[in-house]
């Protein structure tokens, strides 16, 4: 591994500053060992033996193929075929037939032909990246040693006075790794750690998709790097050199990191309290920025479409501070976190009475005996299913918010329908405000009753015709049965 987690960097520091500091200390190591899988100095995890699965095993399999032995598929799995190939190699070189690859076997394997046309895998991908970084076009960086890669190898060999055969031997490989004209590789596929996480965050902020912000430089991150390189007329290698890093770091939209996992203290405790206030669970309010706090912030960022990976940046903090006073309106209505759903009965009764939902309503004509009863108890039952009476709770998957979990995409249209009935309804209504949330729920209940009563006047079944709000007709609820009180 070329980069570590660097978890000792904590506190209120900028993403850019942290990453550049880290990269400054690792660039020399990365440039000398990032791709030299085939040299005896490569930090391969020896011994390699039956049962192991890793990129080192895949490299071994490539080397065995280059030496004329068949290890089976180049899949990174040290199975029976790979072991047999190792034993055959050991036998041919007068070594103990252990089936394991120690330093002796490794040094012998890397001494001759390494890779050539027809080979596939991570070793070929590394070769293509080195060729591209040196100014020779290997074609797509796809891990397939085809005609363009062979041609690029030949061109490189010619430029360095090496034997020109389009095949990569140790001399060609060493020349590629020690080419002074090639930019130093800072990060590449397979790297892990905080620096990779910072890279992914900057890629996401630049408008490309690096996949999960997880600190693992995988295929999606490589693809995002290639897209940025292509869009900015850089050599497309899928690896990160200093030029690309500086380009990403210069993005003015890159958010500053204020707090991150591992931080501790009063500021973290204040953050946890804020996260809880805006409807997400940070775990214990203990002043320790751990996994639960990181997850809560990441979910908040996802719901509100903010850049971030669970670290606190200024954009996230600003959005939380906008929502905080909205969420705190719950306390203006006497919210008590320990009193559950029943504490809202008075407010539900007040609002529902405005809509006539406190009394029984019956159908007409042949269905005059079909009645819909007082809906206040039903409302409290549905509220219990939705939020357990917590007015600032947010569903991180859907973004639904508040006592009756209204979906943001429906909110404006529903509040407009409320104003059709009550013109003085707040034009800045928010689902965090308990009365606003209950009022929109009352609209939907009223519309459901009207729908059901309309259905009851038909000649067909009771549920014939337009359907009511799913919460009230029972079609989408399982925690209360039946959710609709009828006589």
Structure write-up:
The protein is mostly helical and 487 residues long. Among the domains are: 15-34 and 188-249, PGBD-like superfamily/PGBD (Muramoyl-pentapeptide Carboxypeptidase, domain 1, Orthogonal Bundle); 257-332, Muramoyl-pentapeptide Carboxypeptidase, domain 1 (Orthogonal Bundle), CATH 1.10.101.10; 341-473, no CATH class. It has helices at 15-33, 55-66, 80-92, 103-109, 122-133, 147-159, 170-177, 194-205, 219-231, 242-249, 266-277, 291-303, 314-332, 345-354, 376-387, 408-421, 434-456, 470-473; strands spanning 185-187, 240-241, 257-259, 312-313, 361-362, 371-372. The chain has a two-stranded antiparallel sheet. Strands 3-4 form a two-stranded antiparallel ribbon. Helix 1 crosses helix 8 (194-205), helix 14 (345-354) crosses helix 17 and helix 16 crosses helix 17 (434-456). The chain starts with 14 loop residues before the first helix and ends in a 14-residue tail after the last helix. The relative contact order is 0.07. Residues 1-42 and 481-487 have low confidence and may be disordered.
């Amino acid at each position: 591994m070329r980069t570590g987690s660097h978890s000792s960097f904590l506190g209120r520091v900028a993403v850019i500053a942290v990453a550049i500091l880290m990269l400054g200390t690792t660039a020399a190591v990365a440039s000398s060992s990032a791709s030299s899988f085939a040299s005896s100095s490569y930090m391969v995890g020896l011994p390699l033996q039956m049962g192991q699965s890793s990129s080192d095993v895949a490299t071994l399999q490539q080397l065995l193929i280059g030496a004329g032995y068949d290890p089976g598929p180049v899949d990174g799995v040290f199975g029976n075929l790979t072991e047999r190939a190792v034993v055959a190699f050991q036998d041919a070189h007068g070594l103990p037939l252990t089936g394991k690859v120690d330093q002796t076997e490794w040094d012998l394997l890397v001494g001759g032909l390494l890779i050539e046309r027809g080979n596939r895998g991570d070793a070929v991908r590394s070769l293509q990246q080195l060729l591209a970084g040196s100014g020779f076009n290997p074609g797509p960086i796809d891990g397939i040693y085809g005609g363009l890669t062979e041609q690029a190898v030949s061109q490189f060999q010619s430029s360095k006075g090496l034997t020109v055969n389009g095949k990569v031997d140790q001399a060609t490989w060493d020349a590629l790794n020690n080419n002074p004209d090639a930019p130093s590789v800072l990060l590449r596929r397979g790297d892990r750690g905080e620096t990779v996480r910072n890279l992914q965050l900057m890629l996401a902020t630049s408008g490309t998709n690096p996949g999960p912000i997880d600190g693992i430089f995988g295929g999606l991150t490589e693809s995002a790097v290639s897209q940025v390189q292509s869009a900015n007329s850089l050599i497309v290698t899928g690896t990160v050199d200093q030029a690309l890093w500086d380009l990403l770091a210069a993005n003015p939209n890159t958010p500053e990191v204020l707090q991150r996992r591992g931080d501790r203290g009063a500021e973290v405790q204040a953050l946890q309290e804020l996260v809880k206030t805006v409807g997400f669970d940070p775990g214990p309010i203990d002043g320790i920025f751990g996994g639960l706090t990181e997850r809560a912030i990441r979910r908040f960022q996802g719901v509100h479409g903010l850049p971030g990976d669970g670290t606190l940046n200024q954009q996230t903090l600003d959005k939380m501070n906008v929502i905080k006073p909205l969420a705190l309106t719950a306390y203006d209505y006497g919210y008590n976190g320990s009193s559950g759903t029943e504490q809202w009965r008075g407010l539900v009764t007040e609002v529902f009475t405005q809509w006539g939902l406190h009394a029984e309503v019956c159908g007409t004509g042949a269905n005059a005996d079909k009645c819909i009863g007082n809906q206040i108890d039903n409302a409290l039952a549905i509220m219990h299913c939705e939020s357990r009476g917590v007015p600032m709770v947010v569903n991180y998957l859907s973004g639904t918010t508040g006592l009756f979990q209204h979906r943001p995409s429906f909110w404006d249209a529903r509040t407009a329908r409320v104003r059709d009935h009550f013109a003085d309804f707040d034009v800045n209504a928010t689902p965090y405000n308990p009365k606003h949330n209950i009022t929109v729920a009352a609209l939907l209940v009223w519309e459901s009753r009207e729908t059901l009563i309309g259905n009851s006047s038909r000649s067909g079944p009771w549920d014939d015709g337009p359907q009511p709000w799913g919460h009230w007709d029972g079609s989408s609820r399982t925690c209360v049965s039946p959710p609709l009180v009828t006589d």
